[in-house]
Each structure stands twice: as C-alpha cells, then as structure tokens.
Specification:
The chain has helices at 49-61, 75-84, 104-120, 138-144, 146-163, and strands at 12-15, 18-21, 24-26, 30-32, 66-69, 87-91, 127-134, 168-173, 189-190. By secondary structure, the protein is an alpha/beta fold. The longest helix has 18 residues, at 146-163. The radius of gyration is 17 Å and the shape is globular.
C-alpha cells in the first residue's frame, strides 16, 4: 500500500521536483472523488460520513493516497481523510467562465470562492492544497493571452497563501489548451485522460 496507512500527522511540502511527508518522499497516487449526487444534511457533493468511510477504505486498499475533489469539503470529510491516511487536494469551482477577466463582479466572486475554500481548514494535516482552477478553455486563453491569464491565477495562488501558507497551490492544465505556467504555484499539473 502506498504511503502512510494510519492517521496523518503533518502536511506535505513541495521541494524541488518532489513532494515530501516530513523527510520521506511522498509519491502521489491519486484518484478523483465525487462529485456525487447531493445527499446528507445539509446536502453535499461528497456523500455522507458513512458512505465516505466505506469508500476511503476501498481507496486505501487499492493503493491510493490522495483524493482530488471538486468542491470545498466539510470538516467531517477532512477529518475522515486524515483518519484513513488520505491526502486531499481541492479544485475550487468557478461559477462564471465566460470573459470573466472583463467582469469585476465575476472576478470578485472567483476570488471570494478561493478565499472561502482556503479559510475553511487552514493547517489541516489531510489538506495537500488547492487547484485554483481547472482547464481554462483554450479560446479564453487565446482571447486574453497567456500572461494575463497567468497573472490572474497568480493572484488566486496568493489568496490561498494569505489564508493558509502551508497549503500547496497549483493550476490544472489541460493538453489541448496553451500551457499556463503561473509563477506563484508550488507545482505544475496536467490533466491527462487515458
């Protein structure tokens, strides 16, 4: 089984081209979790504590050590991931994806979503970090230009660091799009579909 098998104690760090859990290299073996059909009280996209506990046991048995989720999680989810020895990386969802850099209200909403996600669980040992966005469409990158888009992503990375400086930050690129390389991220990431 990969990585830690018991409750997690500390946070991951990015050093050079590797992740570390303390002084040991952490080899990412991740799986996407959710979004699921809204359930529970209040309704959420990550299931219930009971269903997640069963899923996490199966995920660990399959050799995974990281969950990628697409909505900020409730506290029970983070605590359960810690107990089961799983790290979590949160992709912060954006509501408005059309010409958002021309829309002050859309930019404020995006920044608030990132800030709220980062403020939810600062310092939590299961929290690897955040994707401040995922797969900005190629036409938007071409329209605004890569530098302007990267500058906006950098501003989001800085928001995360201002709320939780130990959280790792990245942007998830998608191969058909121009590769965006923001400067203030901890690592670069690419979504690949097999």
């Amino acid at each position: 089984m990969a990585g830690t098998t018991g409750p997690l104690a500390g946070r991951l760090e990015a050093r050079a081209k590797f992740f570390f859990d303390g002084e040991e290299k952490f080899w990412v073996q991740g799986v996407t979790y959710g979004p699921l059909c809204p359930q529970g009280e209040p309704p959420g996209y990550l299931g219930t504590p009971e269903s997640a506990a069963r899923d996490f046991d199966l995920i660990r048995r399959a050799g995974f050590n990281l969950l990628r989720i697409y909505h900020p999680p409730p506290r029970w989810f983070m605590d359960l991931a810690r107990e089961k020895g799983l790290r979590v990386i949160v992709t912060v969802p954006w509501q408005n994806r059309v010409l958002f850099l021309n829309d002050r209200k859309a930019k404020r909403t995006i920044r608030r979503s990132v800030r709220d996600a980062a403020k939810a669980h600062p310092g939590h040992p299961a929290l690897m970090g955040f994707y401040v966005d995922n797969e900005i469409p190629a036409d938007l990158v071409r329209w605004y230009g890569a530098r302007r888009m990267e500058a906006f992503l950098d501003s989001l990375a800085q928001i995360v660091k201002s709320e939780d400086d130990g959280a790792l930050v990245a942007y998830a690129n998608f191969p058909p799009t121009e590769y965006l390389l923001p400067k203030f991220v901890d690592f670069y990431s690419y979504n690949v579909y097999l």
